[in-house]
Design a protein that fits this description.
The protein is mainly β and 162 residues long. The chain is built from 3 helices and 15 strands. The protein folds into 2 domains: 81 residues, no CATH class; 71 residues, OB fold (Dihydrolipoamide Acetyltransferase, E2P). A hairpin with a 4-residue loop joins strand 3 and strand 4. The longest helix is centred in the middle third of the chain and has 8 residues.
Length: 162
């Protein structure tokens, strides 16, 4: 598979760069966030002033100008096109029962802040106890069930604040 990257600068300029083009750059790190780049006999000094590795965005300073740069590979673009990016996956606003069962233990209450993967409640289904965890960081807005309640599949159980 051709290894190329889509680069966007200041949300206005788009271009693609291949792995071969990258290998033709002569880049030397001069300090922790500073680089000296030589391409086609042209010298450029660049400094990364901000970096958000999870979103692959960087603030780069070149010749006293600042540029916001985002970098995506083919997989990043495919995931975004499918609507499965991490940003959209974490925007879950409610928890519904994944199956019919019985609420054994609630571990949260309305107004409580929870972290991703904190246990919200224990659901007994088919004689098995299932620990249901929070899909994101957030604050519990409301809880529609209590200990001992029988629930149906897709029944609203917990709602998060936006």
């Amino acid at each position: 598979m051709d290894k190329s990257y889509k680069v966007k600068v200041n949300n206005t300029i788009d271009f693609n760069i291949t792995k071969d083009e990258l290998s033709n750059l002569d880049v030397h790190q001069t300090s922790e966030n500073s680089y000296h780049i030589l391409q086609n006999n042209k010298s450029v000094k660049a400094e990364i002033t901000e970096a958000d590795f999870s979103n692959k965005t960087y603030q780069v300073s070149i010749r006293n100008h600042s540029y916001k740069v985002s970098i995506s590979n083919k997989l990043d673009i495919l995931i975004k096109d499918m609507g499965l990016s991490a940003k959209t996956a974490k925007q879950i606003d409610f928890i519904k029962a994944p199956m019919p069962g019985l609420i054994l233990e609630l571990h949260v209450e309305a107004g409580q802040e929870v972290k991703e993967n904190d246990t919200l409640f224990i659901l007994e289904a088919m004689k098995m106890e299932n620990s249901i965890s929070s899909p994101r960081l957030g604050i519990i807005k409301s809880i529609s069930v209590k200990n001992g309640d029988a629930v149906e599949k897709n029944q609203l159980l917990i709602e998060f604040e936006n």
